[in-house]
Design goal:
Radius of gyration: 38 Å
Low-confidence stretches: 1-38
Mean pLDDT: 84
Structural class: alpha+beta
Distance between the termini: 23 Å
Helix content: 40-55%
Shape: flat
Largest sheet: 5 strands, antiparallel
Number of domains: 4
Number of helices: 24
Number of strands: 18
Length: 627
């Protein structure tokens, strides 16, 4: 979410983001909101994260984010599951930070934290010295007190120091990094010996008793599911409604008959400031009421919003606000104020609000020209629905009377299935494909298996809402056990494949044993077994064409052979390593290679450490929690 990435003006929000994505974020949470509960949301061993904590933390960061995003972007993010997950991750990561600090018996040095505040440029005056007023304004702007801010910094400082202590000890030097890079870029030359079913001299035979025994042992796999043969007709909505049109006279008459419904809602223009902390709200109200400039509340409101919250006039202005845009707790307060009146502190789930009313915009009668198209659409929709319902009722009545899809389709000039479909419970026909009628109608399959033979279905609508369908179950073929005669060929094929695999496994091991210690006769032995040879195949570590065999090849020494490994269906490969090629390392790149190897080592260390943490400090999510 680009807007989320752009929240850069708030240092406190950077803390929030940092705790979500620490260099060693301990874990991630997703999809934790499932079902109702008023208890804990998550636990780290016996430490509970309560619903109140989650709500408090959410409101805290909503207040911060609201100053950085416009309303649409703000609503999109804070109402998303991602925001909930980020908040829970934030709380859990802070708890993890405390646990890890306790585990290592480590706390961030108080002087280090205080010095980081004193050295922060955003708190410096023109002379470059720490300015307490700037710092206090920063705390007020972010709705956080000094103790909370220092605790946040302590958590991050301690966590990062521990992280760096673990990862900065990477035992990687230039020589090790260079050798590792050579190994990663290494190419290996191999001769491949391939053994497949052509190399089996013995003819594969499957006896009758083997087929019978396999059938008896696996009889549950040989059943025919219930199938249904279905006819259906299709009703095109456009053909029913294509002649429907609304005239200007009809639209104007409707406007006159319902003129009272076409008025704009009464609205308000206002200023609003919002605080998470009630004491800060009281401080604003006190200074505002004490220093109203010659009765000019608007100027005073703007002045103290800027002074105490660093918010300009535009950011506190809300114009043309109607009741349906407000949360219930604000409606009565705002819509009972007179122009130039201000509210007391209004407490809502979003925080503590103070309102100054600037203007009342009365309800106005909308002209016919402005609402004409909406009226036409409304009347047209109504007539379309009436026409469709009337036509569908007539079609259903005719089908019940005549008991025939075909006759009804012809009478009303509808399309119908001349060749009924034959499907199983998964929607597949006898060619094992899903017919388009099922793909295009999400309720078709379910409906097909919920009505009885010779019954008609209710009307179902296509996914694109352009068509209606009515089904008739022509025949139900019950599920039944297949007979041995029906599956004999299938079973014979299965047993044959199993026998081929077994013989190839034995033969490939025999070839491997012949090659062991005798690789100079590689060609001669391959010829003895009529095995195919691929010579001088060049492979790198990332090559995936040989699957697991490639990994084994990079463990071999020159003139060693691999184990026989099945690479493709019933094809076993044995590799003989003939040469190792190493690329030269550009000396100018050694520094970058060293840094990359250190980073890779650190990542591996942290992965192992994270694994250890997840076991030692088990996180449990309340599967029944939903806000």
């Amino acid at each position: 979410m680009q807007q989320f990435r752009n929240l850069k003006d708030s240092f406190l929000f950077k803390i929030f983001a940092a705790l979500i994505a620490l260099s060693f974020t301990f874990f991630g949470v997703s999809n934790f909101l499932l079902a109702p509960s008023d208890q804990w949301v998550a636990k780290i061993n016996d430490i509970k994260i309560t619903q109140n904590q989650l709500i408090k933390e959410s409101n805290k960061y909503k207040n911060i984010i609201s100053r950085q995003l416009d309303k649409e972007q703000f609503d999109l993010y804070v109402n998303s599951s991602q925001f909930q997950q980020d908040i829970l991750n934030n709380i859990l990561n802070k708890e993890f930070g405390k646990l890890i600090a306790r585990y290592f018996n480590f706390n961030a040095d108080a002087d280090l934290t205080l010095n980081s505040i004193l050295d922060d440029n955003q708190f410096a005056n023109d002379e470059g010295n720490f300015d307490r007023n700037y710092f206090n304004n920063f705390l007020q702007f972010n709705s956080i007190n000094e103790q909370e801010y220092i605790e946040e910094l302590n958590n991050i400082t301690a966590s990062n120091i521990i992280s760096q202590a673990l990862t900065n000890s990477a035992p990687i030097n230039e020589k090790i990094a260079t050798n590792q890079e050579k190994s990663r870029n290494q190419q290996r030359h191999v001769n491949l010996l391939i053994i497949d079913k052509k190399n089996i001299n013995k003819k594969i035979k499957v006896a009758e008793d083997e087929i019978k025994q396999y059938f008896e042992d696996n009889i549950q796999n040989f059943t025919n599911e219930e199938r249904r043969i279905i006819s259906y007709l299709t009703i095109d909505k456009d053909k029913i409604t294509q002649k429907i049109a609304i005239t200007n006279n009809q639209a104007e008459q409707y406007y006159q008959d319902n003129i009272s419904n076409y008025k704009t809602l009464q609205s308000r223009d206002l200023f609003q400031v919002k605080f998470d902390n009630e004491d800060l709200a009281k401080d604003f109200l006190k200074q505002f009421e004490t220093n109203i400039i010659k009765g000019n509340k608007k100027e005073a409101f703007i002045k103290y919003a800027k002074k105490l919250l660093n918010r300009d006039e535009k950011s506190i202005t809300l114009n043309n606000i109607t009741q349906d845009q407000l949360i219930p707790e604000l409606i009565d307060h705002i819509f009972t104020l007179n122009i130039n009146d201000h509210s007391k502190i209004i407490k809502t789930p979003l925080g503590h609000h103070i309102i100054l009313l600037n203007k009342i915009n009365p309800s106005k009668q909308q002209k016919f020209a402005k609402v004409k198209q909406d009226i036409i659409k409304k009347l047209q929709k109504k007539q379309v629905e009436q026409a469709i319902q009337q036509k569908l009722a007539s079609i259903e009545e005719d089908m019940i009377l005549n008991n025939s899809i075909e006759n009804t389709a012809k009478k009303f000039q509808l399309s119908y299935s001349k060749n009924p479909i034959n499907i199983d419970i998964s929607g597949k026909d006898i060619q094992n494909k899903i017919p388009n009628i099922i793909k295009n109608n999400k309720n078709f399959l379910t409906t097909s298996f919920t009505i009885d033979q010779d019954q008609f279905s209710q009307i179902i609508e296509s996914n694109d809402q352009k068509y209606y369908h009515i089904l008739k179950i022509d025949k139900i073929i019950p599920a039944h056990q297949k007979k041995l005669s029906e599956v004999k060929k299938e079973i014979t094929k299965i047993i044959t494949q199993d026998k081929i695999f077994d013989q190839l496994s034995i033969l490939s091991q025999e070839v491997h044993d012949s090659l062991a210690g005798n690789t100079k006769n590689f060609t001669k032995i391959a010829k003895k077994y009529s095995a195919k040879i691929i010579r001088n195949k060049i492979l790198n570590r990332k090559d995936s064409s040989l699957g697991e065999l490639n990994k084994e090849i990079f463990k071999l020494n020159i003139n060693d052979i691999s184990s026989p490994i099945m690479v493709k269906d019933n094809k076993f490969y044995i590799a003989l390593l003939t040469k190792i090629s190493e690329t030269k390392i550009d000396k100018s790149k050694i520094s970058a290679i060293l840094e990359n190897d250190k980073y890779r080592f650190k990542s591996e260390i942290m992965q192992q450490f994270n694994k250890y943490l997840s076991e030692k400090y088990a996180v449990k999510l309340n599967q029944n929690y939903k806000p």
